[in-house]
Specification:
Elements: H1 2-8, E1 17-21, H2 25-31, H3 36-57, E2 61-68, H4 76-99, E3 102-107, H5 115-127, E4 134-142, H6 144-158, H7 168-172, E5 185-188, E6 207-210, H8 220-231
Parallel strand pairs: 1-2, 1-5, 2-4, 3-4, 5-6
Helix pairs in contact: 1-8, 2-3, 3-4, 4-5
């Protein structure tokens, strides 16, 4: 199956930016009678393989929704478990990630996160800042509405006096994703058909693909399948 998709993909039409809502970890665990955190653990393991395939495909940016501004509503125990997993992810993987030429970026509000996580993210961003193979945009404590308000407030504080109003071009420079292309393809796993406050501005003209697979079962075959489907959509951007 994977080999088939690899043959069918048009390598001249690879999306520049894909965004992934990695959903279904809890249900994956529940189905197996395991604690939810086991689902998150397995989910974290999927990330590296997914990143390798994205590199192979020549995708420029992958944005991963790892923790939303609404996820604070979960039990403390689960949230703390997620921070621990993130810590061990970077502890184990950062050196390989850097060797592969990945530039780590963060979208979201860092200051509310535990200090260790803030340091880990800042370190990963700094150590990988000169890498050019792919951008891995970790969306942590991220919410699309928050990002928009944050951008407007920053503009109000920093704008040069001659800039009396915002334009889309100016506005984009104040988003967490400043400098990155808009999202071409958004994938959500777990069979939910919603955006859940992810990259609201950046997905304006993205192709949306919803897959039934739960995130811990996601693999390169699903990624290739999504790219293949994306390549058969007709993107019109309002034109004919
Ligand atoms: C997504 O999986 C991961 C995070 C939100 C951190 P969920 O934890 O939402 O899994 P389900 O949706 O409950 O199955
Ligand atoms: C979206 O998943 C957030 C992440 C994947 C990090 P949720 O599971 O939090 O979304 P809802 O609550 O089902 O909309
Ligand atoms: Mg969920």
């Amino acid at each position: 199956m994977l080999a088939n998709y690899k043959k069918k993909i048009d390598y001249a039409k690879i999306p520049k930016h894909i965004a992934i809502i990695m959903d279904g970890n809890g249900r994956w665990a529940k189905k197996r009678g395991l604690p939810r955190i086991e689902g998150h653990r397995r989910g974290a393991e999927v990330i590296e393989r997914c990143m390798d395939s994205a590199i192979e495909l020549g995708i420029g940016v992958v944005s991963l929704y790892a923790f939303s501004t609404e996820n604070w509503a979960r039990p403390k125990e689960e949230i703390n478990g997620l921070w621990k997993l993130l810590e061990s992810f970077f502890e184990k993987k950062l050196s390989t990630i850097i060797e592969k030429g990945v530039r780590i970026q963060h979208s979201g509000s860092l200051s509310e996160l535990p200090p260790t996580i803030q340091r880990i993210i800042a370190n990963a961003v700094d150590k990988s800042k000169n890498n050019t193979t792919i951008v891995l945009n970790f969306c942590l404590n991220y919410g699309g509405r928050h990002e928009i308000i944050h951008a407007v407030n920053n503009w109000l504080q920093q704008r040069p006096s001659h800039e009396l109003s915002l334009t889309p071009e100016i506005f984009e420079n104040y988003l967490y994703t400043a400098g990155l292309p808009n999202v071409d393809l958004l994938i959500r796993t777990s069979g939910e058909y919603r955006i859940s406050n992810f990259l609201l501005w950046q997905i304006a003209y993205a192709e949306l693909i919803f897959m039934k697979v739960l995130w811990p079962d996601f693999n390169e075959r699903y990624l290739y399948q999504a790219i293949y489907e994306y390549q058969h959509r007709e993107r019109r951007f309002g034109g004919l």
